[in-house]
């Protein structure tokens, strides 16, 4: 992890206006962190809904006609966050029956919901069909057969896309669809072509087009646009070869964000220009009706979240202290999971505390539970608040809350300057009450 710029040296603009992050002028979503800690206790996640709205708008404003955005709920399934994204006018991409229930409860129009992801159980497919969602991305010939039966039994014709496999190496670096090997996600191109023919013959599904997720956390506009271009190109070839229509292409998520001070954000203007060029080309080729879906998760919510903990112990020499926090990878696993740097800030330290080489660790009994080793931070003291930034995506939801039986983190959302508890702490008593100790 790297240390964020000291809050005191940032422009104190009062309310957060930009789209880059939740910490501005020492405030989190415009609110003093100590006030949030006082009201909600630590550890807590806090999300700036206004910032999420501005990120939605920033992306939408560069997209050409025919492009829609569906929020990938896996990034942050908190009901209040999902509801807010509905208010912002985006659709929803769900990857499980649980996420489907979440977005339905959040009031999404079923037509604006997509279901993607491997391993959909029959009851999840049935729930999606019954809800009348916009489309289901089918991962395999077997899934198509199960869906046909389910839709047939429900007396529905379910709109679908077919998911194309992406080269394994593409998941880590560049995006190159080769429609190649059989793997966990989607279908190789040849299988997809055969499945498209089967889908076209079916009374119970309506084939709309193709889906493929390229790669995660891309901050290069050219790579993202290249993925979209290649997918549409393959979609056109499949449509021509199988005599099926190409009405919709879902190019997945993967729009990236910076996680450390040295990284640049995605150049949205450039992405917009490249997508507009592509759009003009498709329009000129008679594909002006072709619809495109992007499913960003991280991009929309990542920078809008912070995880805030309190220092419970400080040890080691003054020049290289070790601060132990009241929360760690039990609430925020991502940095350890993907070994990625993430910005960290000691909140509101008194002026004059010089930055020192600091290790910041959580309370769990594992060496993995370290947020920063050697970060230059104002020398921490017991009682200080420490924030990990850019955790609005894959934070709370991607962690290991049961390890060591600590209470969960709470989640707080801020909208129009008002902070609201959106998920209370799960206490140990609640966890124990749900368990059974049989009377053998
Ligand atoms: C099918 C699909 N769509 C969208 C996403 C969201 O990705 P991101 O949060 O990187 O935009 C994922 C992430 O795993 C995914 O698998």
Count every beta strand, where a strand is a DSSP E run of 2 or more residues.
20
- Could you tell me which ligands this complex binds, including any ions or cofactors? pyridoxal-5'-phosphate
Q: Which percent range describes the beta-strand content?
A: 15-25%
Give the mean pLDDT. 92
Enter the CATH topology name of the largest domain.
TIM Barrel
CATH class division of the largest domain: Alpha Beta
CATH architecture of the largest domain: Alpha-Beta Barrel
Class per helix and strand makeup: alpha/beta
The count of helical stretches stands at 12
Measured distance between first and last alpha carbons: 49 Å
The largest β sheet comes out as:
10 strands, mixed
The coarse silhouette is globular
Query: What would CATH call the homologous superfamily of the largest domain?
Result: Alanine racemase
Helix content: 25-40%
Q: Evaluate the radius of gyration.
A: 23 Å
Which segments are poorly predicted (pLDDT under 50) over 5 or more consecutive residues?
A: 1-16, 170-175
- Provide the number of structural domains: 2
Notes on the protein architecture:
The model is unreliable at about 1-15 and about 170-175 (pLDDT under 50). This protein folds into 2 domains: about 1-50 and about 300-435, Lyase, Ornithine Decarboxylase, Chain A, domain 1 (Beta Barrel), CATH 2.40.37; about 50-300, TIM Barrel (Alpha-Beta Barrel). It is globular. The longest helix has 22 residues, at about 220-240. The protein has about 450 residues and is of the alpha/beta class. Helix 5 links the parallel strand 7 and strand 8. Strands 1, 4, 13, 14, 15, 16, 17, 18, 19 and 20 form a 10-stranded mixed sheet that branches. It has an 8-stranded parallel barrel with strand order 5-6-7-8-9-10-11-12, surrounded by 6 helices. Strands 2-3 form a two-stranded antiparallel sheet. It is built from 12 helices and 20 strands. Pyridoxal-5'-phosphate binds near residues 75, 213 and 255. Pyridoxal-5'-phosphate (PLP) binds near residues 75, 253 and 298.
């Amino acid at each position: 992890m790297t240390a964020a710029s000291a809050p005191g040296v940032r422009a104190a603009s009062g309310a957060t206006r930009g789209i880059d992050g939740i910490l501005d002028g020492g405030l989190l979503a415009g609110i003093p962190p100590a006030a949030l800690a006082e009201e909600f206790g630590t550890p807590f996640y806090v999300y700036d809904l206004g910032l999420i709205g501005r990120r939605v708008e920033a992306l939408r404003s560069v997209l050409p006609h025919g492009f829609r955005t569906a929020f990938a709920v896996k990034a942050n399934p908190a009901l209040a966050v999902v509801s807010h994204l509905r208010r912002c006018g985006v659709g929803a991409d769900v990857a499980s029956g649980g996420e489907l229930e979440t977005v339905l409860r959040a009031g999404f129009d079923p037509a604006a919901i997509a279901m993607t992801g491997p391993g959909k159980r029959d009851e999840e497919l049935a729930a999606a069909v019954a809800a009348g969602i916009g489309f289901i991305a089918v991962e395999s010939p077997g899934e198509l057969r199960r869906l046909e039966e389910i839709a047939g039994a429900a007396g529905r014709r379910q709109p679908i896309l077919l998911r194309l496999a992406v080269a394994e190496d593409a998941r880590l670096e560049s995006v190159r669809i080769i429609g190649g090997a059989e793997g966990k996600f989607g279908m190789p191109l040849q299988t997809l072509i055969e499945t498209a023919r089967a889908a076209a013959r079916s009374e119970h599904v309506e084939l709309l087009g193709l889906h493929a997720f390229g790669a995660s956390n891309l901050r290069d506009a050219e790579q993202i646009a290249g993925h979209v271009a290649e997918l549409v190109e393959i979609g056109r070839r499949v449509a021509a070869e199988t005599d099926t229509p190409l009405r919709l292409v879902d190019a997945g998520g993967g729009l990236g964000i910076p996680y450390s001070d040295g990284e640049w954000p995605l150049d949205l203007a450039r992405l917009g220009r490249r997508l507009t060029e592509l759009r003009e080309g498709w329009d000129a080729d008679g594909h002006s009706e072709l619809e495109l879906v992007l499913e960003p998760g991280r991009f929309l919510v990542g920078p809008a979240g912070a995880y805030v903990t309190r220092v419970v112990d400080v040890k080691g020499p003054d020049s290289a202290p070790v601060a132990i926090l009241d929360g760690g990878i039990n609430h925020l696993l991502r940095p350890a999971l993907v070994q990625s740097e993430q910005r960290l800030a000691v909140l509101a330290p008194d002026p004059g505390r010089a930055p020192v080489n600091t290790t910041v660790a959580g309370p769990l009994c594992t060496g993995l539970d370290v947020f920063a080793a050697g970060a230059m931070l104002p020398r921490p003291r017991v009682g200080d608040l420490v924030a990990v930034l850019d955790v609005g995506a894959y934070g709370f939801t991607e962690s290991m809350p049961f390890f060591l039986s600590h209470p969960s983190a709470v989640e707080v959302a801020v909208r129009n300057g008002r902070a609201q508890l959106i998920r209370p702490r799960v206490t140990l008593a609640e966890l124990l009450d749900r368990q059974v100790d049989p009377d053998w």
